[in-house]
Structure prediction request, 280 residues.
Amino acid sequence: MAPDVQIRYVDVETEGDRRQGEALSRIGGKGVFTAEIEAMLLRGDVDVAVHSLKDLPTALASGLRIAALLPREDPLDVLVGPPGTTLAALPYGAAVGTSSPRRKAQLWLQRPDLSVLELRGNVGTRLRRVESGEFAAAVMAAAGLLRMGRRDVIAERLDPDVMLGAPGQGIIAVEAPAARRDVLDLLRRVAHRPTERLARCERTLLMELGGGCAVPVGALADAHGREIRLTAAVFAADGSRAIRVQLAGTHAAELGRRTAEALFTAGAGAILSEAANHAG
Prediction:
């Protein structure tokens, strides 16, 4: 793409990485993975930052912008466990690991008997804890496993009707300072326009709902020619109920707003308030 550009990688351990024993909703939500990296961008310590889009708050730090989104990988969640493991066939009361309120709520919606326990850390750490038998299974994003070449650990690909993914799931976002026109112009060369359109739809929905790590919101936008079909849901934190809608349209942001309105009309406001209070 740009053979004259030299790339140097900088590893960053964020607060979310350091405080793996605590629930994300109690230590700052999505910002615990991004605040320190964004500070480095603003100071000029790094030129770009690479994130999973689902971990980026809808409101970025002032002076920063998403410069490019890369082609979307599989947006679904999967069950990780011994071969043949399925959500339906897990033993009564089985221990399932995840740190996501969205995943916890949907697990309990399907299987109220499960013992859903906090499981944090990088992919390798989580896989080792499942392989050791500490958990019967774990729910993880398909995209991260596929990008790392670990398709072998996927026991079941969870249908969106069972486990709806997070807005932006499966999408890599590249963030940069808004003032760095040279960097922004370079990154536009790798931007994937179809993915950007779907992401705009899902993140508009999330912004309208006021969602974050503390609020169990799922969304998935699919393109069918010019038309986008957006499936979205909000879940009670304890898995006791859910509100799900599906709308279609051709304008991404407008569809996200209309879908959020439909969720509120159906009673999502009460669930969102309860989830936020539960997290606090």
In short: The chain has a mean pLDDT of 90. The chain has two domains: 15-73+167-279, 77-157.
